[in-house]
Amino acid sequence: MKTIIADADDVSIMAASKIIKSGGLVAFPTETVYGLGANAFDPIAAKKIYSAKGRPSDNPLIVHIANKKDLYSVVKNINAEIKNLIKNFWPGPLTIICKKKTCIPNETSGGLDTVAVRFPANPIAQKLILYAGVPIAAPSANISGKPSCTRAKHVIKDLNGKIDMILCDDKFSFGIESTIVDMTQKSPVILRPGAITFEMLKKILPNVIMNKNLIIDDEHPKAPGMKYKHYSPEADVFIVFSDEKNMDIRERKIVDKINKMVSNNQEKKIKSGVLAFNQTKEFYKNCFVLSMGDKNNLFEIANNLFDCLREFDLNQVEVIYAESVDEKELGSAIMNRLLKSAAYKKIKA
Q: At the fourth CATH level, which superfamily is domain 4-210?
């Protein structure tokens, strides 16, 4: 298959919308990560997404809409809590799981009686959905299990020759996938943290809870990104942390621990990588070092995270040691992605 690669101008978006309507696949930017889109009402098109990504067919797709009112066309049982959520956070990086209507095929919902729905804030995504005239089912535009794509070059590397078109625009607001909230339970449950944080949701949904259970590989996930290992580069990833309360001492302990492991790897001729911050990157020697950004700027870290993980692969790094961030506010989402990329392997400094 020849993939059309184009800047995301109006002419290209219109051409992409025709591909969606005809049952094809288009990768497009959102405010979170690149999505791989198809007609959400078309079961054959949905199957093409799974095939292109190498994605298990029990992993549900997120349905993207271009108006709040379109939610009523794809789900049922919209209560006051759901209305309050979309009033406060749509358009934006929030996905809501509701009971689906019969217009959503099982191929789109992963065989579940629920469906995940999002109204993206990115104007390119909005135009594509409006021009196509149908909701667009779109997981992240990457090979399944690998880091999500926040750069067009990543999408091209993963999917060129496998899909019909790639719309290119690297202006991202968040750089990690949307928050997912399950609204079909007795209490709303956050299944995947994102830029709409637990703290933000708590103000709107006082009874919201954070899911603490891991989904292992032989269970049926209710939302994307719930597999035990996900967002993973080729290298083996370890998260290095410390319980030390004093921030300066904590930083030194983590740096010292990582440098010792790098030194051991060097003796074994294992190429090490370190995922650090602007404030610590200069402390690492004899390894390939990348900075996620300023350790006090969580939005910068989120935007750079997946790009860094992919850069390690390009430099043939074999083992990656990642500095941790505090699991609060956006830090919870960052750590969720890091821990899944490492299959929850942690090393205490």
A: DHBP synthase (3.90.870.10)
